[in-house]
Amino acid sequence: LKERSVPDIIVKSFEDLYTQHPDLFEVQNPKSGEETTIYFHKPPSWFKGWVDIDSPDDPYDETMWKELAKFLDGEHTFAGGRYGMARELMQRNLAFLAPYSLGEVCHIVQLAIQHRRLIVYHRKMLKPIQTVLCQLSPDGTPGIVDATEGEEIKDMDDLTMVLFRMLLHHPSGIRLCRMKQMIKHEFQRKLSEMAFQCTKLIELFNQEPLNETFVLDTENDGKSIYVRLGNPDTFSDHVKRIYAMANSAEANKAATSPPLGHPALPDEANDQTRVPKETLGDGVSVY
């Protein structure tokens, strides 16, 4: 009723009507800031149970997902969060969503964000991820950024190397909310979680090898999340190589840096950083 702009006085009259039939309905008075909840005492025969839109379980047919991905292959923008997008999809009467209720479509939207990586939040709107990636790149090629912002981190080995080197300077940990700014400031690099098909920065640390290499700790009653180094003894052989190279790179950097109070000579300044010292495969170089 409220979605159809029905006046509050009429909505309240319906609540009073349900209250007059306690044999059919259970009316739960709202807590502060919540709305009244009304239940059937005896659920209808067609009722399958409530939909948990935050559930990671994906019971939907792959054909539906293919059709949704095809539909999203264009310039779409959805307001109102998960629920707003679900309502708009329902209003479009899409054949591949016809068997599902509004609650199930809300769940589908959540899975499309969190697990299928089909859509992302961008400037407070939900959009297809490929559309956003192209918007971030002037020539429509994901991953290409303005040179003034620094080279973008494009793969997990590269990101792992950068994090190792940062943590050598910040052994107590890096605040997740400041990680992008620190990468840009200390390494003149740019990190975009969407380049890794993630919608949030924290999701990167659910992927290999980050999930087995770094530890996320919370402080200040969960208000602050810190990225800290895991146990190097448990790293895979490949990650141990990256870790050794990070240590070597920082040692070389310290050895070639001029002492405090002694400015670098022009030749020193020009020879410090751009010739790779070692190369780790897949385009990852240590300078």
What does this structure look like?
The protein is of the alpha+beta class. It is built from ten helices and eleven strands. The strands form five sheets. A three-stranded antiparallel beta sheet has the order 6-9-8. Helix 3 crosses helix 4 and helix 6 (156-169) crosses helix 9 (237-256). The longest helix has 20 residues, at 237-256. It starts with 7 loop residues before the first helix and ends with a strand.
> How is the main sheet built?
3 strands, antiparallel
Q: What is the end-to-end distance?
A: 63 Å
Number of strands: 11
What's the average pLDDT?
82
Question: In a nutshell, what does this entry contain?
Answer:
The chain has 287 residues and is an alpha+beta fold. It has helices at residues 8-19, 62-71, 81-91, 102-114, 129-136, 156-169, 179-187, 210-213, 237-256, 266-270; strands at 25-28, 37-40, 119-122, 125-128, 151-152, 174-175, 189-190, 214-219, 224-229, 278-279, 285-286.
Features:
alpha+beta, 11 strands, 287 residues, 10 helices, single chain, elongated, disordered C terminus
List strands and helices in order, with pairings.
Layout: H1 8-19, E1 25-28, E2 37-40, H2 62-71, H3 81-91, H4 102-114, E3 119-122, E4 125-128, H5 129-136, E5 151-152, H6 156-169, E6 174-175, H7 179-187, E7 189-190, H8 210-213, E8 214-219, E9 224-229, H9 237-256, H10 266-270, E10 278-279, E11 285-286
Parallel strand pairs: 5-7
Antiparallel strand pairs: 1-2, 3-4, 6-9, 8-9, 10-11
